[in-house]
Amino acid sequence: MKHIIISTGLMYFLFACSTAEKKVEPLPQKEVKALKVYQAPDTNELKDDEWGQMVRYGARIVRYSTYYIGPDGVASKNLRNKMTCTNCHLDAGTRPYGLNFFDSHRTYPQYRSREDAILTMSDRVNNCITRPHAGKPLALDSKEMIAIVSYIKWVGEKYNPEQHEGYGLKKINYDSLRASSEKGAVVYSIHCQSCHMADGGGLWNPQKTGYVNPPLWGPMSYQEGSSMHRVIKAAEFIKFNMPNLIAKYNQPALSDQEALDVAAFINDGRIHPRPVPKFHNYPNINTKPVDYFKGPYLDPYSEDQHAFGPWYEIEKFYAELKKEKKK
To answer: Does 3 fall in a domain?
Structure first.
């Protein structure tokens, strides 16, 4: 048997010739599907069975929280103030980008940095009761807790994150912006005061059993450390939902700067005091949000900059820190 020796150069030449005429086919592109804004179901669609009755009861508690579980509640007395769940979770948790419940049940249990703990859906409900409402937790096996969690589950039963959007809050572009309480006072007087009043005390319903428009500061408003007490988060909520019934998620009334400014005005503790929680918020400083108003922090920036911005320097610091940890 004869052995044929082919040089490396000749092998390369033969390979190049054999592939010269071949067309290189592009890789198939992954189809990007347009997401639809999720529309929550209607309670009128529910059957009049045990499940339907429980879900409807949960919907009523979310809408009329103070009547059922408020300071003078007919079912229990768990809330300390008279704000209702729907004051923050708009349209009883069914408005797109309005702190809705679309994907809540599916995503719990989950880690929550404010508590530095894994919370269940029931824990998260009580988290709202004990913090913004400054109340005491519902019993986990109570009819009211089961009803609220059942309602949350039902609202998002057909929500698919691969097909739908609308959950959570819509983001704003804050880049190098800084929020100004002084400018926010002007925005508030033009766009917010007629609903939330000049003193921020909110507007009662005719029976004074709850608020049509909630108090934004003062002793009956949400506590320090509540989600709405963070300027960026509050601005994202405000821009795409307020003024209520005027702004829409696809037609905002305020600019990013105006939303940040009015969020700063509402949450500025130097001019607007609010209840102080008994809880220690964000005990793990490694997971503290950049817009949380109170230190300590891992970074060298001041509480003022964390509260009011600009935040890009802080975010850059943590991005660099993350790179260093990966090395």
So the answer is: no
Looking at per-residue pLDDT, the higher value among 32 and 58 belongs to 58
- Residue 165, pLDDT score: 97
For residue 233, give both structure tokens: 């988060």
Interior CA angle at 233 toward 263 and 150, to 5°?
Answer: 125
pLDDT, mean over the chain: 91
Judged by DSSP in three states, 78 sits in: coil
Alpha helices, H only, 230-311: 231-239, 256-267, 303-308
Backbone φ and ψ of 110, nearest 5°: -150, 160
Alpha helices (H) along 140-228: 143-155, 181-191, 193-196
- Model pTM score: 0.88
Domain span at residue 149? 36-165
- CA–CA separation, 317 vs 300, rounded Å? 9
CA 152, chain centre distance (Å): 15
Query: Helix, strand, coil shares of the chain as percentages rounded to 5?
Result: 40, 5, 55
Do 83 and 40 reside in the same domain of the chain? yes
Convert the pLDDT of each residue in 92-112 to its tens digit.
999 999 999 999 999 999 999
Percent of the chain surpassing pLDDT 70: 90
C-alpha distances in Å from residue 236, one per residue of 40, 126, 174, 252? 21, 24, 10, 11
90 with 209, same domain?
no
Amino acid 82 reads K
Between CA 262 and CA 228 the distance in angstroms is 12
Q: For residues 208 and 160, state if they share a domain.
A: no
pLDDT, one tens digit per residue, over 159-177 is 999 999 999 999 999 999 9
